[in-house]
């Protein structure tokens, strides 16, 4: 018998909705707490910058039990994704579990000795209250707390009329009209905002980044959807994986000349297609050495605008503000009216007590999470959406299905605490020593090992099938409908 639990899901974005659906389907009582005034996480309209759209095609950015509408374009816009999430929540009554404008101020182990946690919740008016939960799913993800950058001279820059804002606050394109806009960062949000500023009539647009990075166009060579090249098992197998046997390592060494030629060919294609030499933006790093969640999609129009001077690219970072200028770390100077900091978000779980945060995150920032979902030393606690990738929704969906079974002791391969610790140590060694690129974002990026990760989750869950055979299995990107069928082959149960 599985006893029903009262489960708190923290966050109402993509991963929070997936977790709430998974726990509710198994018969648990779910409360979703969301600190903002709407669901959607990064797709909440108040957090979206103009013309934002997914980096992934819509068939990769969806739940297993709900496709995006056929009328949506291949890469849906921010409002369309938010509408999809809102419809998903309403269809499965997740909206009835939702407490908006409710922030988690702290948490501690239950004082009554029962399993679970006591959460301190703060309402919109600032009134705190304590509430007990049997299990907590942290679904705040990696895009929760905007990073800050304080530079000398800010006060003077602001006093003479300048503006400094994080990219998540760039919501009104008229902000750029007739003004000198400087964007700091090399992510897709940075290039999106730079392009939008040009289109919005900015007087000058400058983008400042540390160094050129490889970017992937929606269609490689102008013809092939990037998902059919970078999100297939055949390509994934070109990367040495964790726990490889001696025979597998030997096979990879034998194939290394062909693998090398594959990546050099892709680099040559991208240089030609995006005119990287003309833009003086050829990366120094080999593309295969940096493939992870930090490899952005190329914003349409960005490279042509750099090539013709509508966007000026500067390499470095902000040193300090001086009058109406930003002085770079290398001494260069850029005049500015608006500084947009597209510098990402801080990783962390600030409401978790320090004694538990030390068990969760190592000194170098690497997370200690088995399957990127659970830690054996953090009982009645799990994480959904920390296994990020370009098919983030599918990752969160499968993680949520894994977590509810883990919480109920219903995984077909239910791990012991020691087995989890051993696996965590093995994965940390892999990320630190064998493939350092896997250690970015605290080691919480699945790419480029999507299929390897999914295979492990599905085997743990007890699915009878989790792979497609033949050429489709090796040369087709992940299919959410196929994973829905795979999940249906796993043992079924319900708390009662």
Automatic annotation (TrEMBL):
InterPro entries: FAD/NAD-bd_sf, Flavin_mOase, Flavin_mOase-like, FMO-like. Pfam families: FMO-like. It comes from the Bacteria. Its EC number is 1.14.13.148. Keywords: FAD, Flavoprotein, NADP, Oxidoreductase. GO terms for molecular function: flavin adenine dinucleotide binding; N,N-dimethylaniline monooxygenase activity; NADP binding; trimethylamine monooxygenase activity. PANTHER family: DIMETHYLANILINE MONOOXYGENASE. This is Trimethylamine monooxygenase. It comes from Bradyrhizobium huanghuaihaiense. The lineage of its organism: Bacteria, Pseudomonadati, Pseudomonadota, Alphaproteobacteria, Hyphomicrobiales.
């Amino acid at each position: 018998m599985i006893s029903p639990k009262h489960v708190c899901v923290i966050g109402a974005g993509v991963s929070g909705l997936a977790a709430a659906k998974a726990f509710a389907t198994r018969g648990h009582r779910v409360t979703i707490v969301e600190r903002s005034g709407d669901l959607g996480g990064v797709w909440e309209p108040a957090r979206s910058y103009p013309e934002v759209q997914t980096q992934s095609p819509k068939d990769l950015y969806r739940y297993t039990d709900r496709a995006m509408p056929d009328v949506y374009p291949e890469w849906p816009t921010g409002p369309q994704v938010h509408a999809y999430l809102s419809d998903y929540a309403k269809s499965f009554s997740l909206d009835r579990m939702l407490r908006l404008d409710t922030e988690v101020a702290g948490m501690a182990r239950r004082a009554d000795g029962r399993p679970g946690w006591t959460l301190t919740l703060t309402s919109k008016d600032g009134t705190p209250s304590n509430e007990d939960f049997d299990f907590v799913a942290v679904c705040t993800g990696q895009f929760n707390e905007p990073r800050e950058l304080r530079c000398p001279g800010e006060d003077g820059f602001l006093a003479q009329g300048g503006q400094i804002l994080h990219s998540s606050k760039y919501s009104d394109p008229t902000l750029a009209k007739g003004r000198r806009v400087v964007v700091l960062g090399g992510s897709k949000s940075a290039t999106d905002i730079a392009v939008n500023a040009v289109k919005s009539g900015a007087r000058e647009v400058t983008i400042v980044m540390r160094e050129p990075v490889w970017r992937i166009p929606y269609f490689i060579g102008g013809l092939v959807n990037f998902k059919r090249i970078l999100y297939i098992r055949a390509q994934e197998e070109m990367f040495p994986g964790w726990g490889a046997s001696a025979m597998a390592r030997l096979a990879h060494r034998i194939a290394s000349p062909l693998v090398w030629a594959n990546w050099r060919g892709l680099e040559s294609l991208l240089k030609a297609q995006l005119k990287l030499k003309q833009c003086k933006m050829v990366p120094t790093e080999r593309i295969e050495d940096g493939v992870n969640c930090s490899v952005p999609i190329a914003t349409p129009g960005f490279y042509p605008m750099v090539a013709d001077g509508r966007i000026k690219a500067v390499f470095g970072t902000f040193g300090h503000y001086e009058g109406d200028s930003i002085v770079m770390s290398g001494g260069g100077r850029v005049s500015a009216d608006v500084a947009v900091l597209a510098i990402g978000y801080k990783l962390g779980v600030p409401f978790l007590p320090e004694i538990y945060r030390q068990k969760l995150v190592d000194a170098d920032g690497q997370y200690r999470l088995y399957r990127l979902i659970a830690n054996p030393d953090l009982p009645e606690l799990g994480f959904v959406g920390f296994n990020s990738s370009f098919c983030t929704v599918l990752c969160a969906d499968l993680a949520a299905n894994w977590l509810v079974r883990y919480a109920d002791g219903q995984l077909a391969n239910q791990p012991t605490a020691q087995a989890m610790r051993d696996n965590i140590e093995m994965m940390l060694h892999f990320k630190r020593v064998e493939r350092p690129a896997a250690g970015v974002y605290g080691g919480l990026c699945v790419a480029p090992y999507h299929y390897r990760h999914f295979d492990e989750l599905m085997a743990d869950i007890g699915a009878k099938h989790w792979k497609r055979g033949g050429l489709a299995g090796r040369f087709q990107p992940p299919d959410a409908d196929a994973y829905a069928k795979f999940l249906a082959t796993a043992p079924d149960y319900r708390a009662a």
